[in-house]
Amino acid sequence: MSHLTYLEASVVGLIQGVTELFPISSLGHNVLIPALIGGSWASDLSVAKAESPYLAYIVGLHVATAIALLVYFWQDWIRIIKGFFTSIRDRRVETADQKLAWMIILATIPVGLVGLAFEHEFRVLFGKPIRAAIFLLVNGVIMYAGEKFRSRASLKADAELAESRERASRPGERASGSAEHGPGGPGERGTGYGQAERIAASHASGQRAVRQLEHSHALRADERLAMAGYLQAVVIGCAQILALLAGISRDGVTMVAGMARGLSREDAARFAFLLATPVILAAGVLKYNDLIDKGRGIYGPILVGSILSGLGAYVSVRFLVKYFQTRTLTPFAIYCVLAGLGSIIYLSVK
């Protein structure tokens, strides 16, 4: 891999970090952009070549992306990992953290098995630019349909979250979705934001208050996710298999599957990000040796690309976690349809 320039590495690294979390397909963009630019980019940066060093570089960037996700969700992952080990120690699964840990494991198994067995076939068959453009268009249609035909349970979950936020914003009034009582009364935990969060915020200031509120919201969200159950987690996790096709977004299809199974948009996004972390990290680790062997002489560009990928991923996840609290997948769906259709036309007449 002797033809990776700093410019190519920088562009690919930044695109990887941003598009891995934005629901617009990182692999699809990393297949399409070199083909659209043409010239040395098209020859140097091809994932369809046998034992493609460019693919090893892309997957190597996943390590930086996964690190960014771990940094952002570090408190959550400490709880989840602790929940996993305590469930092993106690030989039972009771708490929300324990349940969520096993939900993530079960949801990751299907895509892991399919990826290990058919990664080469997916890359060779669907790593062509024109096919990536087609699947990018399909990705947009999937997300648009997912928003247009959302389940009643998902819409209801959104309404309950909006109502609990509104109540929490009123001084002196207890939100119905506090840790002790959910919208349905005692025993329904974790469906909103309550007095405890407001009290915590009142004793903090500035960024500390924001971080405490984010942590409290994360706890409530994980309690809601744990209530979804293992079967729902597996069904949602299976949607990640589609992301092995260049042009299909892992986070996009996982969110659509989550909303179809009754999750609020916000919780579907959170579960998608949590599920992405072990998958992205595993993909990077599996290709690490290839990256080292085929990256001799260009470690500088690889380092620059990795740094940009990690920074792009961190900024993206911070933005998207807040974005999906109130906004939809529709803008991303429209972008994917237009970008996919435009790429199909351009590549066909090129």
Description of the structure:
It is a single chain. The chain has helices at residues 6-21, 26-37, 40-44, 53-72, 74-90, 96-126, 129-148, 152-168, 195-202, 206-228, 230-238, 250-260, 265-286, 288-294, 299-326, 330-349, and strands at residues 181-182, 185-186. With 350 residues, the protein is mostly helical. The chain has two domains: 6-150 and 232-349, no CATH class; 154-228, no CATH class. Strands 1-2 form a two-stranded antiparallel ribbon. Helix 1 packs parallel to helix 15, helix 2 (26-37) packs across helix 7 (129-148) and helix 6 runs parallel beside helix 11. The chain is globular. Mean pLDDT is 85; it is low at 174-196.
Hey, roughly how much beta strand do the residues contain? under 5%
Radius of gyration over alpha carbons? 21 Å
Summing up helix and strand content along with how strands pair, one would put the structural category as mainly alpha
Terminal-residue CA separation: 27 Å
Number of helices: 16
Q: Characterize the main sheet.
A: 2 strands, antiparallel
How much is the average pLDDT? 85
Total number of strands: 2
Shape assignment? globular
Number of domains: 2
Task: Report strand order across the widest sheet.
Answer: 1-2
H/E series: HHHHHHHHEEHHHHHHHH
